[in-house]
Amino acid sequence: MNNFSLNKYHTYIFFALSIIFAFFNFNLDLEYISVFCFFLISTVGVSHGALDHEKGKKVIKLFRLKKIELFYFSYVSLSLLIIFLWGIAPIITLIIFLIVASYHFGKEDSVFGKIKYNFFSNVLFFFKGSIIVLAPLYFSQEETFEIFKILNVNIKTINPDLLLALILLSLFSNFLLKKNSLIHSLDTLSIIIINWAFSPLVAFTIYFCFLHSIRHSFSLIYEINKNNFKKGSGLFIKKALPLTVLTGLLFLISLYVLNNYFLLNSAILKVIFIGLASLTFPHILLEHLIEKNEKKS
User: Which of 39, 68, 96, 203 is most buried, with most CB under 10 Å away?
Assistant: First the structure.
């Protein structure tokens, strides 16, 4: 089974499960749910970026450098810079993060067939991925604003009609991508369904771990071994495990420290979203550098 077929079936399964889970939406204890979401994001969620060190080796060669330590230093420094910027300018950092993340999610989830990358397609990727931000704002605005408040960003209200119009634009952008627009649309509909049924944190966890992360992992497995998915999966797990464990431990240590100053739920939300932001920027920059080099070669 090739990468296209694998991701296509994954879309169908995720869409079906989104509908099923929406009918079994239980109001469980918030702290229990938050802890469970934290566990999933710090393991399954971050695992799709756990081969960044392998990609870092490519970037080192690209710039004709010899020491891999330079990559690690740059990667960690950028992550720490994001955390620092969030501390001194949370509103600006959050806005930039949401814009960059929307584009990243839209682009990385659009793996169905070859898409011609240009300015127009990049705009479509942004609108497609923006559903991750728009859906919780529309269906659970107060809860989403409460999360923002915990992240030191205070927003009072956003016009629901404007949000609905942007959601429809996000859905419509799938058809402008032309190739396999129906499959793209099912992804967007799945995200709308889980945000309608669940709290923002739960909905994001389901999307991030079981759509975005798994789909990106499929692509990495396919790169490792195009002919044998089982062998590729085993090698991917072996390569991804060290950084996944390390990242999970860093998240856990950060949670332990922050829980001394904040309630558990607030500490979890800070670690999840600020932590993911600090990893997202270097991850996206790394992907961009590799992609840019591949276009030249």
Answer: 203
Name the strand (E) or helix (H) holding 144: helix 141-150
Contact, 188 vs 175, CB < 8 A?
no
Q: Say if residue 176 is exposed, middle or buried (CB neighbours under 10 Å; 0-12, 13-18, 19+).
A: middle
pLDDT of residue 111: 67
The whole-number pLDDT of residue 203 equals 95
Cα torsion 21, 10, 282, 42 to 10°: value is 40
Q: For the chain, how far is it from start to end, CA to CA, in angstroms?
A: 28
Q: Say if residues 272 and 258 touch (Cβ distance below 8 Å).
A: no
Cα gap 7→111, rounded to integer Å: 8
CA distances from 241 to 248, 263, 275 (A): 10, 30, 19
For 172-209, the DSSP string reads: HHHHHT-TTHHHHHHHHHHHHHHHHHS-HHHHHHHHII
**In 109-140, which residue ranges form alpha helices assigned H by DSSP?**
119-129, 131-139
Measured between alpha carbons, how far is 189 from 180 in angstroms, rounded to an integer? 15
Tokens 């970026």 belong to residue: 49
pLDDT in tens, 246-274: 999 999 999 999 999 999 999 999 999 99
Q: Please tell me whether the overall predicted TM-score, pTM, comes out greater than 0.90 for this model.
A: yes
Region 41-48: mean pLDDT is 92
Q: How many CB atoms lie within 10 A of CB 291?
A: 11
Whole-angstrom Cα distance, residue 82 to residue 105? 19
